[in-house]
Amino acid sequence: MYTSTISDQTDRRTLTHYDDTDPLAGIPSRNDIVAEYDNGMTTILQQFLSNKQTVHFMPTAVSDEAEYINGVSTYILRVSGCLINEQKAIVNVMDIKPFFDVVVPEEIPLSMFKTKLVKILSNILGSTSKFGIETISAFLLQGYHTKKKLYIHVRTWNHFDRHKVLKAVREVGISTASDDLNPTYYYRKVACEERLPLSSWAVLNDYNNPLFSLALSRDHTLILTWDIETYSSRRMGGAPNANFEENVIALDPQLITVICGSQTNLLKAFALCWKFLASDIHIGFNDSQYDWRFIVEKAKKLGVLEWMFNHMSFKPSSLEKITKWQYQYNMIKVNDGNFYLKHLKIPGCVAIDVWPCFMGLYSKFKKSSLAYYLRECNLDNKVDLPIHRINKYYEMALKETNVITAEQMQVVSISFLSLYDAHYFAGGMKVCNLLGASAWQRGLLTSTISCEQTESGSFLGAYVFPPIKGLENKCPVTGLDFASLYPSLIMTYNLSPDKIILSRERAKQSGKKLHEISFKFNNQDCLEWSIQHNNISEEKGLYANVLEYLSSKRNEMKKCLVPLKEKGKHESDNWFNG
Asked: Cβ(199)–Cβ(418) under 8 Å?
């Protein structure tokens, strides 16, 4: 990540002017930053591009797009990020046909069901040329099966058409798989199926070069941090509201280096600075609940929101679409509550409000404010500080910011999700995506749409397997890590939906060694069986395989951390003593 450094106490601020008639001058651009930190990488990159050799790309923002190609509205997976020399790049992944699968009912002949399905699809899309179908067979994730089921694979040309026909098919009571009811995040499904890295270095093939290895060892994303100062002459108390003329964005002569002369010019200059820097991530504290709202509402009132957005974004849009699709509420699950955000969503840049991040880090704290977190981190409140202390706090903040963002990207990289998903969605979604990717790789199909009929009861407690007394000398088990007790039970007893039998008759017919499981739920006796895997890979269920994979990744990480443990402790002691 590129961040500016404070090297001395000299005030080197320069003044520039912007009056909406001449270009904004004197503002560093991303290309200036690339040139400063190039180290010869641009020349190498240009050589690789000209020879059509492997290039490395770090994704940061992902979106689903539909554009007309040869007269057909075609799906495009658009990924923005940076190359090895920190230049921003946009990658369009083409030739992806959005699809879902339809379950063929056993009681209806295949030819008759196909005719019925084609009629439904044609009525919705208006033409048979806008979709394609194919008969396939696959295992169902729910329940233990020895034979594959028949499905009809429905492909469309874009994700919006897929969404329309999927809803129509389900409305007439037809079961589906490989599905979802939100066209906004179709890229997650694409990444699962194609195993595309959306938050780690993407490469076309293996390449071993010392220069590239050095470049790939650090994060090249550019982070923009910001804050606004507002003032109200109404003196009504509380935060200024953008809808009143008397409430303005303050022009602080100690901080503002671009002299604008009016709020309209100030907002336009802000948009131009954004365009020049072309950042990958922008962060602020509580900016989603105040700064962004004030900026957007004031820009709408002054009639410059569309102008600003179209200079900040590589994808121009109309005012109506901007306010409808790019300026929306988001909700983050933080601890036991919800945190509501609203910011201007700029294509190619991920917005992160660090307030909910701190709420998650300090989940046991009852208070939540910038001043409170500063005190908890042994930092002074927002007051004037000597330069040398600002430098120390700044360096510490940079390390913390980089670590948190890198940690989020590492977590979602193994579940084929984006940085946006890491920040705005709870951990359960990451688990579902990883399971979905693994199920697709194993040829298992399932629906990702929640069942409308849910149980209202609650389990009395965890199921406890009765102990088998005696000495086990064939497969001894030692409990060393009780933090992983539930995953260990899932792996040992093969507790996975694709290895569960629900009827006694099918259990007898399976010819497999089984674990019998019984418990009470809503005053009813529940009985089921899980297939014993006997440590044979082919017999292990989806959940067991995924947990083993995560366990191996965890062990790899712990090995890498061993030599860094003492080094980190030594550096930490030096920092605090310094």
From this structure: yes
Give the pLDDT confidence score for residue 120 in this predicted structure: 95
Residue 410: which of 515, 550, 282, 527 has the closest Cα?
550
- Same domain flag for 227 and 212: no
Task: Give Cα 219 to chain centroid, integer Å.
Answer: 17
Task: Enter the DSSP assignment of 265.
Answer: H
For residues 232 and 316, state if they share a domain.
Answer: yes
Query: Residue 26: which of 11, 36, 13, 38 has the closest Cα?
Result: 13
CB 363 within 8 A of CB 335: yes
517 located within any domain: no
> Same structural domain for residues 268 and 293?
yes
343: enclosing H helix or E strand: strand 337-344
In percent, the amount of the chain with pLDDT more than 90 equals 34
* Triad 311, 315, 316: Cα angle to 5°: 60
Residue-range definition of the domain harbouring residue 376: 223-277+281-347+349-383
Of 357, 383, 409, which closes a domain?
383
Whole-number Å distance between alpha carbons of 561 and 532: 35
Mean pLDDT of the chain: 80
The closest of 76, 79, 78 to 94, measured between CA atoms, is 76
Helix axes 291-302, 263-277, angle to 10 degrees: 120
In the chain, the number of structural domains is 2
User: Which CATH number covers residue 364?
Assistant: 3.30.420.10
Asked whether residue 139 is domain-assigned, the answer is no
Identify the residue with better confidence: 390 or 114.
Answer: 114
Q: Which of 97, 201, 203, 193 is CA-nearest to residue 433?
A: 193
Residue with tokens 């688990």: 431
Inter-CA distances, 468 with 180, 220, 471, 484, 495, Å = 44, 55, 9, 21, 19
Cβ atoms of 319 and 269 closer than 8 Å: no
**Same domain membership, residue 326 and residue 211:** no
Q: Which of 55, 60, 144 is nearest to 540 (CA)?
A: 144
Rounded Cα distance, 440 and 193, in Å: 6
**DSSP label at residue 324:** I
Query: Global pTM?
Result: 0.74
CB 153 within 8 A of CB 96: no
Q: In DSSP terms, which residues pair with 133 in a beta bridge?
A: 154
Give which of 14, 20, 13 is closest to 262, Cα–Cα: 20
Mean of pLDDT values over 444-460: 77
DSSP assignment of 113-175: HHHHHHHHHHHHHSSGGGEEEEEEEEEESSS--SSPEEEEEEEESSHHHHHHHHHHHHHTT--
Q: Which one-letter amino acid corresponds to residue 198?
A: L
Same domain, 210 and 237: no
Q: Give the H or E element holding residue 490.
A: helix 485-493
**Strand, helix or coil for residue 458:** coil
- Flag whether 287 is in a domain: yes
- Do 212 and 288 reside in the same domain of the chain? no
Classified as helix, coil or strand, 104 is coil
| The one-letter amino acid at 236 | M
pLDDT at residue 489 tops 60: yes
